[in-house]
DNA sequence: ATAAAATAGGATAAAAAGGTCCGAATATAT
DNA sequence: ATATATTCGGACCTTTTTATCCTATTTTAT
């Protein structure tokens, strides 16, 4: 009962983190990313690779290499990341697990649930990486819980 | 990326189904329940047992036995079933997986996500079994997709 | 008492999600 | 050219969720 998969949570946080650091294409290594967002390193590697394939991130191998955002990626929506990692099943499948649904045969919570689900979708569509990254930079929110706040 | 676990989906549907049939404590056998909601029989057995332990359902063994709602269970909220099966983690844990959260260290989507999450909670709290059961009885919604509508 | 009909519950299996390991490939700096 | 630093990708492991199977237990009907 979690709305996003772990992979998706890490993806979002990783992309936001990279957005906070990508003045002049500054590259971040895997280790730095996973430390910044508090995620397991090897697992994070897989996810960053996926994001590279999905053309959200760029990667460079070798010394001085690492990950950074693809051009323009600061302006993409969180929704794009969610789609890339978790797909759209949350927004298309039935909340009650009906194999098929139709407006004449909806599930018992359809009427009340659908508007909320659409709200979530709109929220994800309307929230950009840039916006969240700025919020992190201002210290309004965090990508990882810190015991002692500096 | 599904809001409820399968176990929880089946629970909700099973309880609603029983509510549609509990005029005068009519008992339904496992097989009838799982057929009505389109769920695997043995797995459904486990879930109904859980609901019995949680005092949502009553069960009677032997010939003529089966499952029915506990007294008053028609008036409980969907939220009660969700709590009984999935717990409250969806409503208490961070959407972005932060181990701990505070209002001074929220995750990047906190501000936009929390109100929606609360809406879902309110929706579940304000929706009774009775209400959904009536809706099913009126044919406004279904617990299982039927290819040919009678 | 006995047979039959049901749920209860333990053991197990299969599938999905989450996570790790390590060698191959590649780019860089010297 | 070479050593080094890094990502890439396949194989593997672990945990959780979903599902099945089988036997024990309980209740009812006769
Ligand atoms: S009824 Fe609503 S929630 Fe259920 S399948 Fe159709 S759209 Fe999805
Ligand atoms: S910030 Fe919001 S979503 Fe994140 S942990 Fe706190 S309450 Fe949960």
Report the mean per-residue pLDDT of chain A as an integer.
92
Taking the alpha carbons of the first and last residues of chain A, their distance comes to 33 Å
Structural class of chain A: mainly alpha
Helix content of chain A: 40-55%
The greatest interface between two protein chains, and residues involved on each side, is: A-B, 52 and 53 residues
Strand content of chain A: 5-15%
CATH class (first level) name of chain A? Mainly Alpha
| Attached small molecules | iron/sulfur cluster
Biggest sheet overview of chain A = 2 strands, antiparallel
User: What's the gyration radius of chain A in Å?
Assistant: 17 Å
List the strand order in the largest sheet of chain A.
1-2
Unreliable residue stretches of chain A:
none
User: Which outline of chain A best applies?
Assistant: elongated
| CATH architecture type of chain A | Orthogonal Bundle
Total strands of chain A: the figure is 2
């Amino acid at each position: 009962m979690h709305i996003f998969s772990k992979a998706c949570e890490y993806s979002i946080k990783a992309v936001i983190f990279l957005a906070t650091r990508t003045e002049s294409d500054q590259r971040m290594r895997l280790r730095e990313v996973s430390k910044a967002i508090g995620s397991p390193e090897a697992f994070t590697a897989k996810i960053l690779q996926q994001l590279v394939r999905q053309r959200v991130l760029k990667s460079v191998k070798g010394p001085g290499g690492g990950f950074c955002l693809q051009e323009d990626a600061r302006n993409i929506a969180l929704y794009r990341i969610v789609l890339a990692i978790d797909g759209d099943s949350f927004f298309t499948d039935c909340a009650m697990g009906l194999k098929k649904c139709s407006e004449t045969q909806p599930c018992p919570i359809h009427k009340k649930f659908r508007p909320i689900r659409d709200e979530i979708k709109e929220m994800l569509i309307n929230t950009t990486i840039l916006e969240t990254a700025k919020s992190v930079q201002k210290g309004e929110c965090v990508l990882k819980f810190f015991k002692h706040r500096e």
